User: Fold this.
Amino acid sequence: MRSSNPVFSRRGFSRDNGYAGFGTQPQAGGPAVGTQTQQGNPYAGAGQQAPTNPYATNPYAQQDLQHGAPQAPVTTAGRMTMDDVVMRTATTLGTLLVTAALAWALLPVDDANLPKSYGIAIGAGLIAMLLGLVQAFKRKASPALILTYAALEGVFLGVVSSVVDNRIADGAAMQAVLGTMAVFVGVLVAYKAGWIRVNRRFYGFVMAAAMGFLLLTAVNLLFAVIGGGDGLGFRSGGLGIVFGIVGILLGACFLALDFKQVEDGIAYGAPKEEAWLAAFGLTMTLVWIYLEFLRLIAILQGND
Assistant:
């Protein structure tokens, strides 16, 4: 099964291996397998008796011929660990936060400077989106590309946050940050406790909901461009509040999918550089959640 997040789309770790959290260690070196697990493992080809490790011909895992499960790796050298994911994610988010703070401080949003600051922010956002797409379709992680994406995304978020905080809803940026942190911690706790089970049905539901959400957003934007105003009203008033809540819930679901990808990558012995892709995916999801919170708070406290 493939991830909701494009940076993981080439890896497609198994989502049916029964793990409940980051701390769980795979038995016999990997997920327990059998007929049921084989059906859920995207790496088990037709006619194979057991799933294989997607990352190695043999440096990370070997087949257990008796139980049909990967053997425990002899060494963790060259393999992705949770520490790698945490450090790369902290580096990526730290870069984003630094440039966001600089943009907030150096790009004023008063009446005289707003057009210039907006122009810089939109340009940075578009370039960040382009770099994100390039990384999403690259075969390997590029730390320089990911950090550049984070830096430019930070410029965009810094200006947008300053506009909302100073001109629409005072304190909105901090509230959005706190809300994003709360969602992250809540989903992580629920995932570790096994309250969220990421399986094929969950994945299909989230993907269908996300496609519908993005389609409605695109249609609303099209009507706004053609007819002016807020288009169909999906981003203002009562309907905008509902739409914002749905966006936050979708972001929470994406976090669960990202957590599962990280967990399975570690269990299957993903290469160390995959930690950068994990950091990239988590950063994109957190940016999504933050923007939805910011928009929702602007609607609730401001004048649309």
Summary: The two ends are 39 Å apart (CA to CA). The first helix runs from residue 35 to 40. Helices lie at 35-40, 82-106, 114-137, 143-168, 172-192, 200-227, 237-267, 274-301.
